[in-house]
Amino acid sequence: MKRHLIAELLSLAYSLDCNFNAISLFDHRSKSDHLLMDLHINYETVKPYPLKRIDLPLAKNNNRTPKAKLKADTANGTIILDDITTLKDVPKIAWEYRLGNRCALEWILDQYKEKKPKDPTIA
To answer: What's the confidence (pLDDT) of residue 1?
Structure first.
């Protein structure tokens, strides 16, 4: 009985020590870490950046829907969404934000591109 109780106490002490270390690391983070965490938690309250949306008019006899392109032009600060819609004046700092070694905006656009299935029976 005593061995079982001692094993439980040691397990509890180890667990508390691990959790205490995690809590103490959390409390000693830098100001930039707290700002980044606040941005991730409260992203819905951030004021959107005023991008310029340019929509080209569709031809009157054209009934097809625009085809998505999702291309980034970092030199001009634009994102081409489809045949008719372009976003301009994307801030330079947005292009500098990286996920690993890739630009985050380019990574997101790549993730949302329509991928052609390998199986020819899937349309």
So the answer is: 47
